[in-house]
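seq/struct pair 1
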Amino acid sequence: MTDPENQDLSARRAKLDAALAQKTGKKEEKSKNSASSDTGWGAAVKISSEFIGGVLVGAGIGYLLDSFAGTAPWGMIVFLMLGFAAGILNILRATGKVAEPDNRMSSSTSDDVNNIADKGDSKKQGD
């Protein structure tokens, strides 16, 4: 190839790269906006299913207890309330307002152990 053909090819290539970068930038912005709305919808479905699941499981256990034990409405009432409480707890865990039981125990235990060890070290230094 000759030099003018190389320059023409380089100019066309640069023009194509610029056009592709512009198109790709628009697609990335569009995908970011749709991803955030999809994430919100997914979180809403997850939270509502956590709550509905807790209530339905409580109602089911109460119904089965009533049918086997013959305790007419009391099993359903008690377990429906327990299911409601479990649903609320599941929502709080899903949103991060309440820690999982394993995480809560391990972090507080390690903090307590570190605080006790620090207090013991300061007493030894002060004596």
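seq/struct pair 2
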Amino acid sequence: MLETLTRWLSLRAYGVVTSSLFRASTSPQSMRQRFERYGATTRETLLRRHPDLAFTDHAIGGLAIESVRASASPRRTLLYLHGGAFVMGSPASYRSRAARLAYRCDAEVFVVDYRLAPEHPFPAALDDASAAWGYVRALECGRPMFVAGDSAGGGLALALMLELRRRGERQPAGAVLLSPWTDLGEREVGVHGRDLWLSPAHLDTWARYYLGDADPQDPRVSPALADLADLSPMLVLVGEDELLVADARRVALRAQAGATDARLLIGKGMQHDWPLTLPWLEESRLAWQAIASFIEEFDRGDTAPTRPSGPTEIRGPGSVSSHPPTRKP
């Protein structure tokens, strides 16, 4: 009973806060300021709580990257592309989340301070993600290297994988995509009424900021429309009640159809980015376990795990169904 009440209150509070601070009509500058005001955490604050953390500043040209590790010798490297609708977010506002990833995945996590729209529309974010990937790869840490991102950053991570494939470069060991925004054009809106924050108006407005003069059908902008064959194994997480759930299902199906190992985790009754925004919920703990298990599975370079017969849907704690999503790509 208490768990049910906590879940209900947490989700409703999430909806009130996000829908109040980040409306479709809120200017990018105001959203950016609010995101940093309420989300940024100083290194000193985190170090007081977790003295084993270690932060490092990196730069490539004018592009800043912050890395964090939770042990002296982490087993993996993870490039993280933050969310924020391409208009907000930074290493500071994702510092706590990056630290959690470092602990959970035994990884050194590199968070990219990529350029934001509308001042820097497409392809600025993708160019920065590509540059950051090359920089971190060149560090030659001798560890398996993964990519991850949430929301806009999740779509950007998928676009980065496509860009690496186009250039014939080595793919990540795997990818974790949380509530990825992968189609900046038309979308299904069947769960619009259950999403406590995002609406078609939000996505349409933010897409215009990022697109500039780009075509929303360009797969570098909308990677859900691309051929997703022969990419790295990917774990896609999405809330059952969020607006982007149909796109997440489509990505998993298209990837699986192209012989890419795609796992789909759906949080029953959950909202956008729920493992990051509501980490105390049982559904979030399940998601974090799935992320850590996925990273653990694919950091072995000597064995190719068996591809599943279809994307797996995990719908809440203790309930797993292995049937593929019903929507066709």
